Amino acid sequence: MVIVLIGLFAGFYGGLFGVGGGTIIVPALIWLGQRPKVAAATSLAAIGITAAAGAIFYLWYGDVRVLYALLVGIPAAAGAALGTAFQQRLQSRVLTALFAVLLAAIGLKLVIG
Known about the structure:
Elements: H1 2-17, H2 21-31, H3 36-60, H4 66-87, H5 92-112
Helix pairs in contact: 1-2, 1-3, 2-3
């Protein structure tokens, strides 16, 4: 049941801010005892479903710029493949630390502008 609530919150958060998998699902799955690599892989699989649902609704309201989506999405897919290959070479502890540093840096940037 907890995992369903995590998905619901991540979907809402993703629809509201455009993020959810990396900032909600990954830490929550790690908190539930999953290894960081498993959490990241599971999150990426779930994001496909979440992204499709969100994009359909945004498209319905006329907010999707298809050309921009392609110009961002195609390179992002290549980047995801490269990031996954790199991630497989990292130890879980290092991966968790890098992720924590990234989230802290983003939070600091948002607070101080």
